[in-house]
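Onboarding guide, step 5: your first structure request.
Type a short instruction followed by the sequence, for example:

Predict the 3D structure of this protein.
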Amino acid sequence: MPVSTIKAFWVTPVTIALFAPLVTLSSVSVASAKACAPEHQEAVVDAINQFFEAASHDDDNLFKEVLAPNFYAFDNGKRFDGMQLPQWIKAAHGAGKTYVWSVNDPEVHFACDWAWVTYTNRGSAGDASGTQPISWLESAVLHYQGQRWHIQFLHSTRAAPPSSN
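The system replies with structure tokens like these:
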């Protein structure tokens, strides 16, 4: 086949239509590979810390940055969709409740542009009658979109109090 025939073949609308998705997929793969890089472990934990920062200051804008559009959580024995958990926290603050949260011993796992993290949240909860230390066992699923990690799902369970052995 002459070279001019090969060149003509490669620039037909059909070949463009066939190869354009491959170029797009390879671009997505490159972005996903970047999300899977080890340095993203810190970025995943930082997203959880930003969630706690938003919760501490009732910062709806920061919540909207860090939460995925279809975020939901299992916390306090209930399912919370979208901004329901942030609203519940804000209402608790309005009723005089205080909370302190912190990420301890995180374990981060990746599946390209998805990550899941487990950690112990050691903090406290208080009101006018006093403050009690509390620990929660938590896990979250995050999705890498728009150059950042977004929390898709969060699960929190109160940890058993330390045994008095």
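Each response can be followed by summary notes, for example: The mean pLDDT is 84.
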